[in-house]
Design brief:
Elements (H helix, E strand, L loop, with lengths): L2 H5 L2 H5 L8 E2 L2 E2 L1 E2 L10 H13 L9 H21 L6 E4 L2 H13 L7 E5 L8 H10 L2 E5 L1 E2 L4 E2 L4 H4 L4 E7 L11 H9 L4 E5 L11 H4 L3 E5 L9 E5 L1 H6 L23 H5 L1 H9 L7 H28 L4 E4 L10 E6 L4 H12 L1 E2 L1 E3 L4 H7 L7 E5 L6 H15 L2
Parallel strand pairs: 3-15, 5-6, 5-9, 9-10, 10-11
Antiparallel strand pairs: 1-2, 4-12, 7-8, 11-12, 13-14, 14-17, 16-17
Helix pairs in contact: 4-12, 4-13, 5-6, 12-13, 13-16, 14-16
């Protein structure tokens, strides 16, 4: 066991996640499906239950449950602002990241015209691709692609100068690949984009559970994520830079607010879900130190990152020594999330995941994970895509060892 693992409070962390008590075929379940949605911390569940038990209400009422709902939303936005180094009035909640991205794309598109250009990435989840492709088609815009190198599994940033033009209005790119874990150099992309007054929209869904994000350091205009990926409920989150947010005109009902951030939050929000957001963020902060919430969040992420990466290194090292396994990952010097994509010779991806579940009670997923452009470029879409194992702060070294043992036994059948 590494020194980091010895110091990490894994027992205390696991106690906060009731789902870890589940068993399958008499064995404790190993949740390695975090990239598709993490397990939920109990404090978040408690907040959701408390809100519904005390009586929910819509906004702007002159009675306690309405005022309490407004305060819960305000508290959640304060926490999200601290999470990303933003301001509460820049924070928007919605059904999910995909729905919010479609709404933002439509709002921005009202000021775009034929001949304008949008840039999207070949490495991205389609939620940060198709909303932009849709508005481009509606407006007669040109779409350019920032290509991925299928050998290195990194974006070809050397082509950025030729991809961005005087006609480019926005570039959409992911902070980290939900399929293969590659962390992109967003700050470098933003610097070149902003030099030409190009907006930068970043999908941080996969990154948010694993490391600290500073919106301003990265130079992001629109940052998108989902609370259910970082130990909370299913609520989409957008953080839009104030100057931009005040200018855009979302599609909305006539009597709905025209001020930020409410003007993008159409309809009644998922109040009980929003109640669970702050506790999820406070779970991360609870692993850190400092006076301010932002400081505790950042130092908490340092603890999480060191622990998760230690487990991931062990898993990657073991898989690289198994002849039947093909790993899909960037070079060792490229930053990555603790997400491992691979395939196993002689097995379909679905059959392999099913056997790991039935024989070892390990939950892993297979498919293209909506990173279908990358899967197409690698030529694996028609044969099931990848098998993906993703680590979370509640996973253990023993679970990693069970996973490695299972792969070795199945590949020796």
């Amino acid at each position: 066991m590494t020194k980091t693992a010895e110091l990490y409070p894994i027992a205390a962390v696991r106690e906060q996640f009731p789902a870890l008590r589940r068993t399958h075929h008499g064995k404790s379940v190993v949740y390695f499906d975090g990239p598709g949605g993490s397990q939920v911390v109990k404090s978040s569940m408690d907040a959701i239950y408390a809100y519904m038990t005390n009586g929910g209400a819509n906004l702007h009422g002159s009675f306690p449950s309405s005022r309490e709902t407004e305060q819960i939303i305000a508290d959640a936005k304060d926490a999200v602002a601290a999470l990303f180094g933003a301001m509460p009035e820049e924070v928007v909640f919605g059904a999910n990241m995909t729905t919010l991205t479609f709404a933002i794309a439509r709002a921005l598109g009202r000021n775009w015209k034929e001949g304008d250009e949008i840039v999207v990435s070949e490495l991205d989840h389609r939620a940060n691709v198709d909303p932009w492709l849709t508005i481009a088609a509606d407006r007669g815009m040109t779409v350019r692609w920032l290509p991925v190198d299928p050998d290195t599994l990194t974006l070809r940033l050397e082509e950025l100068d030729s991809v961005l033009t005087s006609k480019t209005r926005l570039i959409a790119v992911g902070l980290a690949s939900n399929a293969v874990g590659t962390i992109n150099d967003i700050a470098a992309i933003s610097k070149k984009a902003h030099a030409q007054d190009i907006l930068v929209a970043v999908d941080a869904v996969h990154a948010a559970p694993h490391f600290a994000i500073d919106r301003d350091t990265l130079g992001v205009d629109i940052l998108l994520c989902s609370a259910y990926k970082f130990f909370g409920p299913h609520v989409g989150i957008a953080v839009i830079r104030q100057e931009l947010f005040e200018q855009i005109q979302p599609y909305k009902l006539q009597p709905a607010p025209t001020y930020i951030p409410d003007k993008l939050e159409t309809g009644t929000q998922n109040h009980e879900g929003i109640a669970g957001i702050r506790p999820a963020i406070e779970f991360i902060a609870g692993l850190g130190k400092g006076q301010e919430l932002r400081e505790r969040i950042c130092t908490g992420y340092e603890v999480i990152e060191a622990y998760e990466n230690g487990l991931a290194d062990k898993l990657r090292s073991a898989l690289s020594e198994i002849d039947a396994v093909t790993l899909y990952q960037a070079a060792p010097d490229v930053p990555k999330t603790p997400t491992i994509a691979f395939r196993v010779a002689g097995w379909s991806t679905q059959e392999f995941c099913a056997r790991m579940c039935e024989d070892y009670s390990i939950f892993i997923a297979d498919g293209d994970f909506y990173a279908m452009t990358l899967a197409d470029k690698l030529g694996i879409n028609e044969s099931g895509g990848w098998i993906r194992a993703g680590l979370a702060p509640y996973n253990t070294e023993e679970e990693v060892e069970r996973f490695i043992r299972g792969i070795k036994e199945l590949t020796n059948e």
